[in-house]
Amino acid sequence: MRIGFIGLGNMGAPMAANLARAGHELVAFDALAAALAPLAALGARAAGSVGTLAAEELGMIITMLPASPEVRAVYLGEDGVLASVRPGVILVDASTIDPHTAREVAAAAAARGNPMLDAPVSGGTGGAKAGTLTFMVGGEAAALELARPVLAAMGRNIVHCGGPGTGQVAKIANNLLLGISMIGVAEAMSLGTSLGIDPAVLASVINTSSGRCWSSDSYNPWPGVVPGAPASRDYAGGFAADLMLKDLGLACDAARRARQPVLLGALAQQIYQQFSARGFGRLDFSAVIKSYRSDRPDDA
Amino acid sequence: MRIGFIGLGNMGAPMAANLARAGHELVAFDALAAALAPLAALGARAAGSVGTLAAEELGMIITMLPASPEVRAVYLGEDGVLASVRPGVILVDASTIDPHTAREVAAAAAARGNPMLDAPVSGGTGGAKAGTLTFMVGGEAAALELARPVLAAMGRNIVHCGGPGTGQVAKIANNLLLGISMIGVAEAMSLGTSLGIDPAVLASVINTSSGRCWSSDSYNPWPGVVPGAPASRDYAGGFAADLMLKDLGLACDAARRARQPVLLGALAQQIYQQFSARGFGRLDFSAVIKSYRSDRPDDA
Amino acid sequence: MRIGFIGLGNMGAPMAANLARAGHELVAFDALAAALAPLAALGARAAGSVGTLAAEELGMIITMLPASPEVRAVYLGEDGVLASVRPGVILVDASTIDPHTAREVAAAAAARGNPMLDAPVSGGTGGAKAGTLTFMVGGEAAALELARPVLAAMGRNIVHCGGPGTGQVAKIANNLLLGISMIGVAEAMSLGTSLGIDPAVLASVINTSSGRCWSSDSYNPWPGVVPGAPASRDYAGGFAADLMLKDLGLACDAARRARQPVLLGALAQQIYQQFSARGFGRLDFSAVIKSYRSDRPDDA
Amino acid sequence: MRIGFIGLGNMGAPMAANLARAGHELVAFDALAAALAPLAALGARAAGSVGTLAAEELGMIITMLPASPEVRAVYLGEDGVLASVRPGVILVDASTIDPHTAREVAAAAAARGNPMLDAPVSGGTGGAKAGTLTFMVGGEAAALELARPVLAAMGRNIVHCGGPGTGQVAKIANNLLLGISMIGVAEAMSLGTSLGIDPAVLASVINTSSGRCWSSDSYNPWPGVVPGAPASRDYAGGFAADLMLKDLGLACDAARRARQPVLLGALAQQIYQQFSARGFGRLDFSAVIKSYRSDRPDDA
Fold first, then answer.
1. Do C252 and A252 touch (CB under 8 A)?
2. How many angstroms separate the most distant Cα atoms in chain D?
3. Burial annotation A175-198 (CB, 10 A radius, 16+ → b, else e)
4. Which of A181, A232, C113, D154 keeps 20 to 30 A from D217, CA to CA?
């Protein structure tokens, strides 16, 4: 299938490369022209603008953009996708944005005769390169079945979450919980070690008890407890604290719009914000444990 | 081995019964004389007081008491265990109390020539009856090896956590995390469904993603998501919200003493307190999701 | 001076009426035509659109709008103020919006040759009717001096806060503190009375001690403590909880943009959100004390 | 009147000195014998123990002790006040402790025939020296009237709060609100200045608006805003953050016992705890604003 791909950042570039390697014919666009070179080497063709890309004869257009305003501009702008795309082309937005915007854009696409899927991913840049992402997909089941073979070239799990926007809902609900759990683990590990238990022993107790969670058993924030985790390499790589801050912001905004309280979620966001304000926003989000293991010069 | 057992409440009674069934000779005491009858039917002998029990020729004394003041009274009181127990008898306190008190009592026992283990349990009354409890044990490894065959008649997992008090530390650190995670799941499930995703779909996404945790995959607070969980039977049985409130209180108190911040933990405690103040303290703690799924008469 | 006035809602209508009564020649516009009738009775002329109003020969244009999107549309829209206004006309936006938008609009106005002031108010509909509002004003001092006699017809205190946007900054910082203080008073009054002190006695102690604040001495949330306060008339009138929720939202959003933590502020917002979700959003914000004085059927 | 005085710490010593200067005949005791010398120079006599002091012919005994355990020991201990005091002697405890203990001790005193008042103070060491303390008094009005002339030698305001324990209730409710308000002011000032307003201008707006409070107008945490406040002398002197932490601990404990939620209060306590854990516990509590004005090396 000939596929248009818009947005070749840290995530988009390796995803598009996997599509090219899987034999798909690609037409690509990025606001940064230089981003197209590596993809051209894999046989992809560059488009001069969103509009010219959208006007081509394509089976599908995939977008991978930083945030809601970019998604809005790329789809609804004057020279945007919906202004030029042919009816029937399937539109897949893999960006992580608020569900409200996702639904608004999907409705505009439907009105134009284009089925649209919101398909945010988890798995990070590692998963993007390895082609092992998880796609959380909102939209019509029929459209997803058509898109599935294409998505399968980029990810391992493709989960249908329901109608338009529910892919975004699943992503932000999961990350709300993740952001809370990680701080929960940071507090439990810090309290336990303050009180004299060995951190590896505490983690092993928790991991076989009711406190068990991904943030403890697969991504423990205490250095050395999980050898492969960012905590064991000075919190380099992984999922930046500033990205967690962005996702918790999406969750809190969506909650406000729905008048749904999220007390722990809002406090968790503030704790990452305090952490980011201290200059640590580029570290992996598990480094938030630094807010709990401070030196104590004044302690008797 | 002849064993003294003090404290035959909801947890202690089935634990002692399992010991009797395993062929141990039991001498038992409870402030409530009626609590002894079922155990007598299994061959146990009743002692008239803590002091007379402690004065007997025993290999081990096990206590299962409600809170720190009772533990202090039973061990350190005028007619308490330490006033009469013979040197060398192993003391095992299975109560959940603060680590500070556990260490103080263990030090007093050591001074008297009695090795002492703090051995709080998880698994609830179900685990106590089935003999499948987990023991989190603090104290000398040698004493634990002597106690292990006895504990094995009451529980399935026996984890050595380190020196005196670390069993309590492991328990309260795990439950701190559990209390936070459960509210995290409640917020994520409530936000997701408010935004239009099906709760079972959302749970299945979370359970295979980074939000995965025991509170979501084994004990989900949304009715019907996990068939056997308390949420699927109107939050009856399980682990009462008031007990979670007690354990979070122990965690916050220990944190204060150690000058260790636990921001989410303290807020979680308040959320259970608010829930308990509304009259729901006897429901399973997963019912805290009721604080998030309110009716909204004023909503347009 | 001939003045254009846009936005005749609960606040704008009485403000415009005071201008008319003070002898100013008014040209007014509101999206709701019916809103113009009472003003016409005071001699004001109706304009057919924002654009036709802006094109008139005026000394000043005042706007009083619900939120940022409306301000953006009225000033920057195709038929907006800046498209037609003559250079030199002073623009005064009395809406409460985010400082970022205020600065963006002020910069666009300056580029067109129009001095602009952001001038959000406090004092509520009571102050609007009585002409006793406080204006917190951001922008050039010279423009404020020209506007001052006009603002004085609507308000009693006119405070210059600094350059463009600082009027909004002062408003949201004050209301952030107000939202927190009110909950603080609610917690202190609820805790004190739970512990057996008379609420009037407690309030009088606080009001002469270090807990003293406007939320306690002038607007106490406990019924009967301050006779004229909303608490003493079933929380009718006053400043709606949903408006406090909006203002705390502005504060949290501005804080996020500035990467400035506001831990208590974010939690306070959630507490009003929880309160609003229960259907109480139209009550005065001091009614949030209801979240703390629940009935306790299960209490022994 | 001949008066016994127990506890000559930072607060007790100047209070007792004011009594001596007012012509009262004093018998004093402190566990630290050296503490008695300055008082002896004013004519006071030293007692050898609590018991011998209590056995003397006295009109009143006043105690000023660090916390509940000391109060319990001094009144209820084997050699304590109640073991030796003559019936009818009025007992006044000026310590700040939990209301529960205050009531327990008062009940024991009443059973012995001794009217007892809980009379915690505000005003700090400055107020103690100047004799300008505020006494918040719980207990019988008749006993307070007898005590009033004596208290008047140490303080300026003497407020009757109700029955036994209500003096403590008033103190902890006020300080709960104070601890919250100070952080509220810290957040509002930090947010405002982050967004570009001058701190002195912001404070002056707040102080004439609905955010007005003692923490802003008399004790502003921003350096230079209130010349005499601790913020203007590097947060030296004043009311130590660790003492605020202690008082918020009393409030949270009392709330837990009463099953009364205090969400902002519990979070405020954690914020002071985090601050104290960084080694700042001896600074004035207004220094908590340092948690909000961090350097931001990573900020672009």
1. yes
2. 73
3. bbbbbbbbbbbbbbbbbbbbbbbe
4. D154
- Looking at the structure, do residues A119 and A173 belong to the same domain, yes or no? no
CA gap D51, D67 in Å, rounded: 20
Taking only residues 43 to 72 of chain C, the set having a beta carbon closer than 8 angstroms to any beta carbon of chain D reads none
Average pLDDT across chain B, whole number: 95
D120 and D253 in a single domain? The answer is: no
Helix H segments across chain D?
12-21, 37-40, 50-55, 68-76, 81-84, 99-112, 124-130, 141-151, 166-194, 199-207, 214-217, 241-257, 263-275
Quote the domain boundaries for residue D283.
Answer: 169-291
The residue of chain C nearest to residue D185, with distances taken between CA atoms, is C177
How far is Cα A287 from Cα A272, in angstroms, rounded to an integer?
10
Cα(A87)–Cα(B250) distance, integer angstroms? 62
**DSSP H/E element including D6:** strand D2-6
Q: Which helix (H) or strand (E) holds A90?
A: strand A90-93
| pLDDT surpasses 90 at D300 | no
Does the predicted model carry a pTM greater than 0.90? yes
Q: Is D5 on the interface with A (CB under 8 A)?
A: no
Give backbone dihedrals phi and psi of A47, rounded to 5 degrees, phi first.
Answer: -100, 155
Question: Chain A contacts of B134, Cβ < 8 Å?
Answer: 208-209
- Average of per-residue pLDDT across C288-299: 67
Q: Where are the alpha helices (DSSP H) in chain C?
A: 12-21, 37-40, 50-55, 68-76, 81-84, 99-112, 124-130, 141-151, 166-194, 199-207, 214-217, 241-257, 263-275
**Token pair in block for residue C122:** 């406090």
Q: Residues C120, C32: one domain? A: yes
- 3-state class of D293 per DSSP? coil
* CA angle (C39 as vertex; C35, C43 as ends), nearest 5: 150
Whether residues A47 and A90 share a domain: the answer is yes
Q: Are residues C156 and C174 in the same domain?
A: no
C180-216 pLDDT per residue, tens: 999 999 999 999 999 999 999 999 999 999 999 999 9
| CATH for B238 | 1.10.1040.10
C-alpha D81/C-alpha D138 separation (Å) is: 19
Number of domains composing chain B: 2
For residue B166, what are the contacts with CB-CB under 8 A and spacing of at least 6? A195, A196, A197, A201, B99, B118, B138
Q: To probe the interface with C, which of D195, D198, D201, D294 has the most C CB atoms within 10 Å? A: D195
CA A117/CA A134 separation, integer angstroms? 14
Residue D266 to residue B262, Cβ atoms within 8 A: no
Asked if B178 and A211 touch (Cβ cutoff 8 Å), the reply is: yes
Confidence of residue A238 (pLDDT cuts 50, 70, 90): confident
Burial class (CB in 10 A: 0-12, 13-18, 19+), D151: buried
| Residue A156: burial class (beta carbons within 10 Å; 0-12, 13-18, 19+) | middle
Q: How far apart are CA D92 and CA B135, in angstroms?
A: 49
Residue A194 near residue B173 (C-beta atoms within 8 A): no
Q: Longest C-alpha distance within chain B, in Å?
A: 73
The answer to whether position A300 is within a domain reads no
Say whether pLDDT at D295 is over 80.
Answer: no
From the CB of residue A58, how many other CB atoms can be counted at a distance below 10 Å?
22
Which residues touch A151 (CB under 8 Å, ≥6 apart)?
A: A92, A119, A135, A137, A158
A37 vs B: CB within 8 A = no
How many Cα atoms sit within 13 Å of D268 on the Cβ side?
36
- Nearest beta carbon to residue B278 from set C263, C279, C294: C294
Q: Are A122 and B209 in contact (CB under 8 A)?
A: yes
Same domain, A75 and A12: yes
- Assess whether D254 and D147 both reside in one domain: no
- Does B21 have pLDDT greater than 90? yes
Per the domain annotation, does A51 fall within a domain?
A: yes
